[in-house]
Amino acid sequence: MTTSTLKIAIGSYSDKGIKARNEDFLGALMPEGAQLTHKGIAAAIADGMSGSDAGHEASQCCVAGFLSDYYSTPDSWSVKQAGQKILSATNSWLYSQGQQRYQSSKGMVSTLSILVLKSTTAHLFHIGDSRIYRLRQGNLEQMTRDHRVWISDEKNYLNRAMGIEPHLEVDYKAFPLEKDDLFFMSTDGVHDFMSEKKLKELLQSGGDLTQLAQLIVQQASDNKSDDNLSCQVFRVAEIPLAKEDEVLRQHANLPFPPPLEIGQMLDGYKIEAELHASTRTQIYRAFDTLSQTQVILKTPSVLYEDDTHYIEHFLHEEWAGKRIKHNNVLQVLDTDRVKTCIYYVTEFIEGDTLREWIDKHPKPYIREVREIIEQVAKGLRAFHRMEMLHQDLKPENIMIDSKGTVKIIDFGSVKIAGITEISPLERHDDENILGTLNYTAPEYHLGQRGTIKSDLYSLAVITYEMINRALPFGGDMPEKPNKLNLAKLSYVPSFHKNTMVPAWIDGALKKATSISPQGRYDEISEFLYDLSNPNASFLNEVDNIPLMERNPLVFWKGVSGLLLLLNMVLLYLLFPN
After folding, report:
1. How many whole angstroms separate alpha carbon 538 and alpha carbon 116?
2. Residues 397 and 409: beta-carbon distance below 8 Å
3. How many other C-beta atoms can be found within 10 angstroms of the C-beta atom of residue 576?
4. SS3 call for 337
5. How far does CA 409 lie from the centroid of its chain?
6. Residue 301, exposed/middle/buried by CB under 10 A (0-12, 13-18, 19+)?
7. Of 502, 457, 450, 451, whose CA–CA distance to 477 is shortest?
8. Which residues pair with 2 in a beta bridge?
């Protein structure tokens, strides 16, 4: 059965066995509402390493810490991003505590296996020799591999575990869920003392899952297990409809707003002026009568009233904007008032777009350009920290307020990793390419995935245009860029447009606007550094450019001077007296 939510049944059991203390730890969290949609269901099992000074504390820290921290990470993060960051931080803490408290690399060490079920996908993280199995349609499969090295039939050791080394290497995989999938998590005190054949037989027996977990532990104990015994078993009872996102769609049934006139009231907002209108949206300046402040209202166009894809995208803009709190990004405002129609509210900015600034400053100082671009970059990095790509950076989507603060103001093309895992936003065929032609990274036109380097490309094109009053490839991009016509594009050095641009700044612009992402900087910070600090490699490149190409004016002045000198020599030779 497919529904709008994910549902599982779960059972678990843990016993110290013949040992004096139980150093295993397990747990699971099944949230409701938005957290179920955006974070999913998480389960984990850990086994404190034998011989570890604080194995019990380590296993508890791994499981309890992950289950707590995972649900505190931004909704916009992918499961992989959230998991890896948490595990890396936990590993560093375990390792440092082991060194400080026990002066040993075995001070606080544990295995750890995690399963996160989100939407229609299972995400697995694993390190050590605890295990995760999946029973699907009668087939039992071990989904993890043991990080254990066998020296002989009797001697072995863990070569990877939480807290054993400062650097962590975690196995990660993601795979689709199916209804009735049965997952089984266990420590080695269970699976080392039971054949897969017997385990499969017990898992197929059905019944109450807690009783099943107890039965499996008892079976391993009867088989002379000499370790702690712990296991969790859970069955996928219902899976959500593919590409269903309740949060983005929660307002989709609201009506479109009526045409708004100056003086009209909408949910406590008094319309003061229409600032922009297009076939897709309208933007109004309004006065919030509750907070007594000016705000901006953005409303969808009634032309798309029956277009569910458009509505989803409009709601997606608001969702993205609310999750970024940064001085260089337009603030989408939260409100507890009940909406009577579809719209969203942002802070009001008094100022100019960057396009207007460019038009007013035909010959800006490079220092001014740097200051603006550095602020835009800070805003971009706020998106990237939330695992979002902007994908439509251009001068029209950047504003500079009366105090000189620069803000990115548009969220219409933002890609959110955490949402994409739930529901990749569908687009019509003519909307596959995001952004604006001259500022969109070439890889999008070739059907490739965008990365941070794609936003960097757009930022660098804007920088080039601010400095040179032109685009980096001599004019507009081809109307329908493909591999062939993109390969024909040639970067136009800044000295052809603005002789005052230093060669090392042009080198940074050239690198950041490379047609191939591999040719660009890896990080925006590297680009910013090279805009302010001469890079010797760029200076060396300039030395190899012929003077005629590097500075045609100086070249022809030199040629003219040489010809004049030759003529004077000839005159002297012909007429010595």
Report:
1. 47
2. yes
3. 6
4. coil
5. 19
6. middle
7. 457
8. 239
Per DSSP, the three-state class of 31 is: coil
Type and span of the H or E element at 346: strand 344-347
- Whole-angstrom distance, CA of residue 15 vs CA of residue 219: 12
Please check the confidence at residue 118 and state whether its pLDDT lies above 60: yes
Residue 301 identity (one-letter amino acid): S
200 close to 212: Cβ distance less than 8 angstroms: no
DSSP H or E stretch at residue 28: strand 24-29
Residues near 274 by beta carbon (within 8 Å), at least 6 away in sequence: 260, 262, 282, 283, 284
The predicted model gives 479-497 an average pLDDT of 88
Q: Which residues pair with 288 in a beta bridge?
A: 269, 293
Contact 299, 342 (CB under 8 A): yes
Between CA 343 and CA 331 the distance in angstroms is 15
DSSP, res 136: E
pLDDT digits (tens, 9 = 90+) for 492-529: 999 889 989 999 999 999 999 999 999 999 999 999 99
Would you identify the CATH topology of the domain 2-242? Phosphatase 2c; domain 1 (3.60.40)
Host H or E run for residue 9: strand 7-15
246 burial via Cβ count (<10 Å: 0-12, 13-18, 19+): middle
User: How many angstroms separate the CA atoms of 319 and 412, rounded?
Assistant: 11
Q: Enumerate the H helices of 449-489 as residue ranges.
A: 452-468, 483-487
Residues contacting 22, CB < 8 A, separation 6+: 14, 15, 16, 56, 228, 230
Residue 252 sits at the vertex; the CA angle it makes with 248 and 258, to the nearest 5 degrees, is 130
Fold of 247-347: Phosphorylase Kinase; domain 1 (3.30.200)
Q: Examine the pLDDT at 315 and tell me if it is beyond 60.
A: yes
Asked whether this chain's domains 2-242 and 247-347 adopt the same fold, the reply is no
Residue 399 backbone class (left: φ over 0; alpha: ψ -120 to 50; beta: rest)? beta
The rounded mean pLDDT for the chain is 88
Q: Is the pLDDT of residue 3 over 60?
A: no
Quote the pLDDT of residue 225.
96
Burial class of residue 150, CB neighbours in 10 A (0-12, 13-18, 19+): exposed
Please write the tens of the pLDDT for every residue from 415-442.
Answer: 888 777 775 544 433 344 556 889 999 9
Pick the CATH number of 351-545 from 1.10.510.10, 1.10.8.280, 3.10.310.10, 3.40.50.720: 1.10.510.10
CA 133 centroid distance within chain: 29
Residue that is written with structure tokens 């093309």 in the block? 413
When computed from its CA atoms, the radius of gyration of the chain, rounded to whole angstroms, is 31
Domains of the chain: which residue ranges? 2-242, 247-347, 351-545, 550-577
Buried-exposed string 227-236: b where 16+ CB fall within 10 A, e elsewhere:
bbbbbbbbbb
Bridge partner list, 295? 286, 347
| DSSP strand pairing (2-3 vs 41-48) | unpaired
